[in-house]
Design the sequence.
């Protein structure tokens, strides 16, 4: 135990150690591959496992004998793991990706080969589409977190911002009869929580983690209370929002796999893509980004150079609130038809996890969110092919996969150095 | 960095304080001391502020009150008198539901009512407080060790599962069964807490991520478990487990007064555990190491404390406390496992732990306050028609104000004084 709890700095000065992270992961992957080949191979039947690129299970499909597929792809994963022991670092990511995908395919071959005859197909286009859709709120929530935490204000209140956004979107879309007003209101809903967060954390120096937790409970109580007092009494007047319109991009939406996932979307999808790019470019290539990162790492130094630390923090936290509130609108304007108490069911916390998993970077958080979305989508698809795995365990899949990924692949992460520390001039 | 962490809100407020000459009379001094921002004053004022804001919410969400706003400027008295009626009625019910109902006392005293009704509110308060104290402690202990345990909910669920399984699967004699079931609850909860602690020590996986994820895993596991053969109640078609055997149910302390008094041994367990944890934190080697690691892991490592093993132990202990909290629910009040058997007692534990300033007895009194709000909120909901959700808002506001002593001081223009808040030294961000 002591050997593995050494500092990162200490680990760096001992490169001669044989058991590097790459080799450890390699062994893990090789074992997983062998297990997959043996276990899934034994459980699979000789029936065909089919994969289509389309959104439906009809159409041209690639099929493979279930047992052969399970063993073959398990072996590929094992080989990829074994290769990590002998190759250089450069190939690590590729081998890792290959190994994970092969293990997954081996698993799917088993699952599909035991499904009833007309269900033994996985429409990959639909899986891709729902992965992206399920990841959307997480991407937006994590982006809000990036904005706050890169300027050193911890944002645990993403869940609360989601709830306020979802509530405001439902209420004002119904009252005004326009989803755009609703989305605007959702931004304001997120902004209210962000304002409380900013003022209490920056002006009144409240512990930010504590504050975030409390603001979540506050938002949960407030939206729940208003729901009971207003919406539950008159659903038609306050709580019947319409869906956001779907905008297909002509041409591009016909691309197999990517088309339905990325180009048959709505304001949330395109908004999330634009925001990821904007925040990534902004953070790493503009003056604002440099200042934000400086304030997040060493506010005293930034202050010395004339950056207005507190003003920048206020601005970033408030913009973050707008983004998270927008993400909250997803819940009432896209995924379901009306607001309900505690409807975000902790996804704000998952977005927080995606933020940490993605190492506080916009692209990283997006990938982490997509990973989570993919696991959720996979769980749904497996449920629809009558998987022998009980649905309770399928539902655990994204959460367990995140634990494995965080513990096995990501390991120790480093937050912005000043994250959570209030800045006191002087 | 050091300047930032050591300068607390109090120092700032003190620096900007107005320098009045001390009052001459004793009464003046007494009033002044009452008006300084000590811990007690801040907490009381925080509760007061939260109730005021809650009252505003009650007033503006009431239809009749809102109707008077349309002619507010021609006759404002209607607005104020209606609001006052509504809010005072709601808070009167809150009091009657949590402490005592004077009418019931009178009725019992002159023989027309039962004593059961007199003790009912306080029994409910203590019933709600017991698991809250334990889950609050689970959060507070980890917090003192520098870990942010969002997984209290999952640990409490697993504790309830462990206790319930031991409660209806093991045929054990009276007395032993109870103890064994409690131990099972603590053990399973502890195992659930061990996982994030171990992963943090071994791989550096952030405990916030792993505990959040394990909450969901526990919830889905519970959902799966209660419909399995041998677990599900054979006489029921819905998702509910068999009831815990009588021998494993926590004895109702006031059962001799009336059957509706649910307060049980759980509150005794909670008091004993709080005392034990307080002793451990203050006196034992582990408690010392825990606090040292919480304050400064690097310095602790230099001093020869095994930081990784401390993390594992802290999380296991926290999980066991949360598990015990879940166990007292299923063995005391719920009796059978359902999908929502522990409600949100784990998440509420976070607030209780924070309100108690992460100190064992502080947590206990915070649990009493939250238990009272819960019990009174039930009565307020049924008698005044105010949604129970308002209690959540009030609870959150109390903790916000307690965590922001500087804000309370500003609102009430308090004189600066030493106040033990959740100082910035306690949590170092991620």
Sequence:
């Amino acid at each position: 135990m002591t050997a593995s709890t050494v500092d990162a700095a200490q680990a760096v000065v001992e490169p001669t150690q044989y058991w590097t992270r790459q080799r450890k992961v390699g062994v893990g992957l090789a074992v997983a591959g062998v297990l997959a080949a043996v276990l899934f191979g034994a459980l699979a039947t000789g029936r065909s496992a089919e994969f289509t690129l389309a959104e439906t299970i009809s159409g041209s499909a690639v099929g493979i004998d279930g047992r052969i597929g399970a063993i073959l792809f398990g072996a590929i994963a094992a080989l990829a793991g074994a290769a990590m022991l002998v190759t250089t670092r450069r190939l690590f990511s590729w081998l890792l990706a290959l190994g994970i995908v092969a293990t997954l395919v081996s698993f799917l071959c088993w699952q599909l080969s035991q499904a009833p005859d007309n269900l033994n197909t996985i429409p990959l286009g639909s899986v891709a589409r729902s992965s992206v859709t399920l990841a959307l709120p997480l991407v937006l929530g994590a982006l809000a977190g990036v904005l706050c935490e890169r300027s050193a204000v911890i944002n645990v209140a993403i869940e609360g911002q989601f709830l306020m956004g979802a509530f405001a979107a439902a209420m004002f879309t119904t009252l005004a009869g326009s989803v755009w007003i609703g989305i605007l209101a959702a931004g304001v809903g997120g902004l209210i929580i962000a304002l409380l967060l900013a003022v209490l954390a920056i002006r009144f120096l409240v512990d930010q983690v504590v504050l975030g937790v409390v603001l979540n409970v506050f938002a949960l109580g407030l939206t729940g209370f208003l729901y009971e007092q207003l919406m539950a009494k008159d659903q038609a007047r306050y709580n019947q929002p319409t869906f956001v319109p779907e905008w297909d991009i002509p041409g591009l939406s016909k691309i197999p796999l990517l088309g339905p996932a990325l180009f048959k979307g709505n304001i949330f999808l395109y908004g999330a893509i634009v925001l990821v790019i904007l925040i990534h470019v902004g953070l790493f290539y503009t003056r604002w980004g440099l200042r934000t990162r400086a304030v997040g790492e060493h506010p005293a130094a930034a202050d010395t150079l004339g950056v207005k630390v507190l003003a920048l923090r206020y601005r970033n936290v408030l913009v973050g609130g707008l983004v998270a509130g927008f993400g909250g609108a997803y819940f009432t304007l896209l995924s379901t038809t009306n607001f309900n108490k505690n409807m975000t069911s902790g996804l704000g916390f998952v977005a927080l996890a995606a933020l940490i998993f993605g190492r506080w970077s916009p692209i990283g958080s997006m990938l982490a969110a997509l990973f989570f979305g993919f696991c959720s989508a996979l769980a749904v698809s497996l449920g629809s092919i009558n998987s022998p795995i009980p649905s309770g365990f399928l539902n655990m899949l994204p959460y367990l996969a995140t634990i494995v990924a965080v513990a096995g692949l990501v390991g120790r992460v480093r937050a912005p150095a000043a994250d959570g520390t209030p800045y006191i001039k002087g | 960095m050091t300047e930032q962490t050591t300068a607390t809100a109090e120092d700032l407020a003190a620096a900007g304080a107005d320098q009045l000459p001390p009052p001459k009379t004793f009464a003046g001094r007494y009033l002044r001391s009452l008006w300084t921002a000590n811990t007690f004053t801040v907490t009381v004022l925080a509760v007061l502020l939260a109730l005021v804001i809650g009252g505003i919410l009650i007033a503006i969400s009431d239809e009749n009150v809102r109707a008077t706003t349309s002619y507010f400027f021609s006759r404002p008295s209607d607005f104020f008198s209606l609001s006052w009626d509504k809010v005072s009625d709601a808070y009167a019910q809150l009091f009657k539901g949590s402490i005592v109902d004077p009418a019931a006392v009178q009725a019992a005293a002159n023989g027309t009512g039962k004593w059961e009704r007199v003790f009912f509110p306080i029994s409910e308060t203590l019933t709600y407080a017991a698991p809250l104290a334990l889950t609050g402690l689970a959060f507070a202990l980890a917090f003192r060790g520098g870990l942010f345990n969002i997984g209290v909910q999952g640990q409490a669920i697993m504790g309830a599962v462990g206790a319930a399984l031991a409660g209806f699967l093991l045929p054990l004699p009276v007395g032993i069964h109870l103890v064994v079931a409690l131990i099972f609850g603590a053990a399973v909860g502890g195992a659930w807490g061990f996982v994030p602690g171990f992963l943090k020590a071994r791989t550096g996986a952030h405990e916030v991520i792993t505990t959040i994820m394990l909450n969901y895993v526990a919830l889905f596991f519970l959902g799966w478990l209660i419909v399995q053969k041998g677990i599900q109640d054979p006489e029921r078609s819905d998702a509910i487990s068999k009831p815990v055997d009588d021998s494993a149910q926590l004895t109702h302390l006031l059962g001799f007064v009336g059957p509706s008094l649910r307060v049980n041994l759980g509150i005794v367990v909670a008091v004993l555990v709080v005392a034990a944890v307080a002793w451990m934190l203050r006196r034992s080697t582990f408690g010392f190491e825990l606090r040292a690691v919480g304050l400064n892991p690097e310095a602790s490592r230099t001093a020869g404390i095994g930081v990784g093993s401390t993390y594992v132990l802290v999380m296991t202990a926290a999980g066991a406390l949360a598990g015990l909290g879940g166990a007292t629910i299923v063995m005391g009040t719920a009796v059978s496992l359902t999908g929502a058997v522990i409600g949100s007692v784990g998440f509420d534990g976070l607030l209780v732990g924070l309100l108690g300033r992460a100190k064992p007895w502080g947590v206990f009194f915070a649990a009493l306050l939250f238990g009272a709000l819960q019990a009174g909120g039930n009565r307020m909901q049924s008698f005044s028609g105010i949604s129970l959700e308002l209690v959540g808002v009030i609870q959150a506001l109390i903790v916000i104000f307690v965590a922001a002593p500087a804000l309370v001081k500003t609102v009430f223009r308090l004189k600066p004084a030493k106040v033990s808040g959740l100082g910035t030294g306690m949590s170092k961000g991620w």
About this structure: The first helix of chain B runs from residue 2 to 6. Chain B touches chain A through 66 residues (CB under 8 Å). The radius of gyration of chain B is 24 Å.
